[in-house]
Sequence to fold (160 residues):
Amino acid sequence: MQQKETNNNPLIEDLTRIPSRGRIIAIDPGTKRIGAAVCDDDRIVCRPLPMFERSSWKNLLSRVKAILHEFDAKALVIGLPLESDGSESPMSVDAREMARKFRLSLELPVFLQDERATSYAARQKLWAQNGPKDLRSSIDSEAAAIILSDFLDRITKSTN
Fold:
């Protein structure tokens, strides 16, 4: 688990808007692929979902809505790719814009979660479990599971 929070987010995210139980979906947006993950109703276990290709906004919205509906999710978390020093990157701007569009299009809360080093951590975990076989198809969703786990830690800290 990574012990960090997004501290340069201009939006003050109200974590109290999330019901105390229920699944949450996280996505790790990339330029070509989107990793996804879900937690259980008690928010103890996070597991990767199949990654999917990124195409138009309409297709992305449709795919994410389907996942949210399938798991009866209570919130959506989007990985925010900041630079190692916490500054914005071009992908951060993209993730913030994606979050803005999801907030306008969905009827559930949407949050950003710092995702620095999650792809690296996911690669290490997968390498340790499986060796070099087919890391590319699994890494984005494994990173989404780490993002979701970090977000759940953030919720726990905010309620204690």
Helices lie at 57-70, 90-105, 118-130, 135-159. Confidence is low (pLDDT under 50) at residues 1-12.
